Amino acid sequence: MATPHHRPNGGPWLFAFYLAALVWAPIPLGSNRAWAGALLAFWILALALWWIAGRIGGKRSLPPILRQARPMLLCALLWLGYVWLQLLPLPIGILKLLSPQAARWYLAAAAPDAPGAVALTLDRYATLEAACRSTAYIAFFFMSLVLLSSRDRIRFAAYALIASGVLQALYGASIGLQSPEGVASGTFANRNHYAAYLVMCLSVGIGVLIASLSGARSASWGHFFRSLIQWMITPKMALRLGLVIMVIALVLTRSRMGNSSFFISLLITGAAGLLLAKHATRSMVVLLLSLVAIDVFIVGTYFGTQRVIERIAQSSAQSEDRGELSTYALSMWRDYPVFGSGLGSFPVVFPHYSAQATAVAYTHAHNDYLEFAAEVGVIGSALLGLMVVLSYAAALRAQYLRRDPLMRGLSFAAMMGILALMIHSAVDFSLQIPANALSFMLLLAFAWISLYHPHSES
């Protein structure tokens, strides 16, 4: 349904700095350094305050999507409240009731004098930093909903992420092909995190490509092939080339789960799209998926899919210690089941569980699910999981209900990207990397936009 004409919710400079933050985030090692993470959080929060100041001054309006996305926003606010609550000083008697294991640690550290007011978290500084980052991520989600108020801005945001992915792919592939190992990691410190970022960019790129396909059904095979040739000689082939470049870089990462999550999420989302596509041209969707499959075959032949397959086949419990790490992380969660040990406290608390078995100091669990469970307990994990589930359900519903090609492509991108990151998170900590977390929040916003954005604009 059309909405009355109004100015975009945020001036061009505000929107430009929003896009710049999205592109900047992966450049300084995925913003996974203290200074880079702090700069990114400050950047986003400053943009949010800029928008709020305009709202107070009467220059901004609250778009309807904020009301329609209330379930997600409510979960996000509860999550922020919960994380900041972990920093609230509590009497030791109350802490014994809420988190007995944390109380024992405080009592042992304060002997012989009993401590006064203490917090649920066992690492105040780390939790404060994590709380600030979480606030910035939620602010970025909010800003995505209010700033992407027009179809042009939605496309700009999508193309900004795609362009960032292509630039990362060009840089990573060029460095990887010149290195003796032939492994690409882009501007990230870890190739697996780089692979996760590329998968999100690929998801959006494929969604935009789907949105660009004609909704007309072919009357004959001749008409079908004429449409195909016309499509191939349009500027859309530049996007197609960008996807090929990103696939090359993804294969060059040699990341087993990065490549696996891409193919699995593509197949599942493609199948769901075909089943739910009541109004879409299924032949064109099949064509798109077949083209991607051809890319994988050709690119893999020359750039090393076989080596990725060999790495998957050679994986064993003897060569990997992630299963052992998961066991220790599970033990940690059992000691802090309800409220957790504090968001960001894993590097401080985890050595108590793994020091006797390994001399390596792990800062992450290589499993986002277990790490979040250990740090924020059942309550925090439930809130995080609910935000993801609600967003995926919104994208799935949009895929079924919407006829608008752009919204269908956007919902496809959100479904594929969310699913890929959920698969990857089972064996890695990609969501602990600020650049990946920020891009993931954009995917969650795309899910709600694809469902509730109006079909046409005056």
Structure, described:
The protein has 458 residues and is mostly helical. The protein has helices at 12-24, 34-56, 64-68, 70-85, 92-98, 100-110, 124-147, 151-178, 191-211, 221-232, 236-252, 256-276, 282-303, 305-314, 322-335, 346-349, 351-354, 368-401, 405-424, 434-452. Helix 15 (322-335) crosses helix 18 (368-401). The protein is globular and about 80 Å long. Residues 1-6 have low confidence and may be disordered.
Task: Please provide a brief summary of the model.
By secondary structure, the protein is mainly α.
CA-atom Rg in angstroms: 23 Å
Number of strands: 0
Q: Which whole number gives the mean pLDDT?
A: 86
Distance between the termini: 10 Å
- Globally, the shape reads globular
Per DSSP, the total helix count is 20
Helix content: over 70%
Describe the main β-sheet briefly: none
Strand content: under 5%
Low-confidence stretches: 1-6
